[in-house]
Amino acid sequence: EATQAHLDRIAEVDGDVHAFLHVSDHALDVAGDIDRRRAAGETLGALAGVPLAIKDVLVTTDMPSTSGSKILEGYLSPFDATVVARSRAAGLVPLGKTNMDEFAMGSSTEHSAYGPTHNPWDLDRIPGGSGGGSAAAVAAFEAPLALGSDTGGSIRQPAHVTGTVGIKPTYGGVSRYGAIALASSLDQVGPVTRTVLDAGLLHDVIGGYDPNDSTSLADAWPSFAEAAREGARGDVLKGLKVGVIAELPDSGFQAGVSASFREALALMEAHGAEIVEISAPHFEYGVAAYYLVLPAEASSNLAKFDSVRFGLRVTPHANSTVEDVMAATREAGFGDEVKRRIILGTYALSAGYYDAYYGSAQKVRTLIQRDFDAAFTQVDVIATPSAPTTAFKLGEKIDDPLQMYLNDVTTIPANLAGVPGISVPSGLAAEDGLPVGIQFLAPAREDARLYRVGAALE
Ligand code: GLN
C-alpha cells in the first residue's frame, strides 16, 4: 500500500518536480515479498516495507546508475552500494534513483545532464544540490525517506531549501563502497527525511563498519533512532552549550535566514541552552581550500571514465587512436562544470603548482580541524544557518560559478574536518515564505548528539 501510494504520487507530480531519473519497475514486487514474509510470521525491522529513494550516485544492480552524467547513461552496476544492500536487507523498498548535479558537483541540481529538478515549494526555484532530487522527492511526498551524499553540503543544503532533514555523518561512519566517488576524503553518504527520527532509523540501517571501505570506522555506534527519541522527550537542551562562530560574517546571509537562526537560538535558550560565542578564525577559508582539494581529488577519481572501462564511447573517425577516442568521449560525456573542475584539479596538482595550491589547501584544512578541536573543548555543538539564502530561482546563479560555490560556506568546513552535521528545518523566511534550516555540528563520532539536539528543536 505504501509503495503503491508513493508510485501514484510520483506519477502525479514528478512530471513537474523531476526528482527521479529512474523509477523502479519492480518496487511493488519487492513490497509484496515483504508483505508475504511478514504474513509468514517473520520478524522484520522498523523500516521493512518503507519505500526509499536513492540518489543516483549510489550504484544499484537493478536500476541504472548515472551520477547525473551522460558518460554513464544506462550504466548497470554489477554490485549494490553497501548502503543499498543494507537497505534491501532491512526490507526497505527501493523506489527509484534521484536526480543530482553531474558527479555531485553543484548546489542546485541544474548541472544534471538530464535537466534540473524543481523545488516543490515553488517550481521556479532550485531544490538545492547536488542531491536536489532526493530532497525534492521527500519534500513532495514522492518518497518518505531518501539517501544522499554530502561532499561539501549536498545533503544539508538541499534539506535547508526544501524544509527537510539531512545528515552528513562522521567521516567513516557510513560506507562509501558503491558511492561513485567525487572527492574521497570528503564524501559521506547519509539520510534525507522529513523528521529527525526517520533519519535516525535510516542511519541505523545503513551505518557501521564495512570492510569494503578502507576508511570505514570500526566503532560500535549507538542507535541514532534512540538518540532522536531521547531528544524528542527529554530535556536535552538544558545546560547544552551551543557555540556560535564569532567570525562568521553576517553579510551574505539573507535577512530571513539570519532571523530564523536567531529565533531558533532564542528558543533553545528559553529551554535552558547556553549560547556561547566561539572563535573559528579559519572557518571562512573553507570554501577556498575546498575548491582546491575537491577538484584535485575529483580530477583523479574521474580519470577512470576513459571510454574503456565504463559507459559511453565516442569514436570520432575511422582511424582514431586510443587518445582520440578517450578525448572525444570525455568531451562529449562530461558537462561544463565537470570539465571546469577537472581542469582546476589537474592544474592544482601539477608539478610546480602542487605546493602553492594543493599543499596550501591541505594546511588550511588542518587549521580548520584545529578550530573545531578548540571549539569543542568549550561547547557541545556548533550552530550556524545551514546555507546563506533560501531557494533561489532556477537559472539565477548558473553562469556564475563563484556565487554557486559560496552557497556552501557553512556546510563545507564539516567535510574538511570530517565532523558530522545535521540540517533541521527552523521555519520559513519572512520575506519569501520559503524554508530555512539550522545546522548543528558535533565532534567526530558524536552523531548521536546531533540527533538529540535536532529532535529537541523539531
Ligand atoms: N555544492 C558543493 C559542490 O559543488 C557540494 C557538493 C557535494 O556535497 N557533493 O561541490
Structure notes:
- With 458 residues, the chain is an alpha/beta fold.
- The protein has one domain: Amidase signature (AS) domain (Amidase signature (AS) enzymes).
- It has helices spanning 2-17, 27-39, 82-89, 132-139, 156-162, 196-206, 224-233, 255-270, 286-301, 322-333, 336-349, 355-375, 401-405, 412-417, 447-457; strands at residues 20-23, 51-55, 93-98, 145-150, 165-168, 188-193, 241-245, 274-278, 381-385, 421-428, 435-441.
- Strands 1-3-2-4-6-5-10-11-9-7-8 form an eleven-stranded mixed sheet, with helices on both faces.
- The chain starts with a helix and ends with a helix.
- The structure holds glutamine (GLN).
- Glutamine binds at residues 104-107, 129-130, 150-154, 182, 294, 408.
- It comes from Microbacterium alkaliflavum.
Main attributes?
11 strands, 15 helices, alpha/beta, Amidase signature (AS) enzymes, 38% helix, binds glutamine, 458 residues, ligase
CATH secondary-structure class = Alpha Beta
Mean pLDDT: 97
Strand content: 5-15%
Domain unit count: 1
Specify the number of helices: 15
CATH superfamily: Amidase signature (AS) domain
Bound molecules: glutamine
Structural topology:
Elements: H1 2-17, E1 20-23, H2 27-39, E2 51-55, H3 82-89, E3 93-98, H4 132-139, E4 145-150, H5 156-162, E5 165-168, E6 188-193, H6 196-206, H7 224-233, E7 241-245, H8 255-270, E8 274-278, H9 286-301, H10 322-333, H11 336-349, H12 355-375, E9 381-385, H13 401-405, H14 412-417, E10 421-428, E11 435-441, H15 447-457
Parallel strand pairs: 2-3, 2-4, 7-8, 7-9
Antiparallel strand pairs: 1-3, 4-6, 5-6, 5-10, 9-11, 10-11
Helix pairs in contact: 6-7, 7-15, 9-11, 9-12
Glutamine binds next to loops.
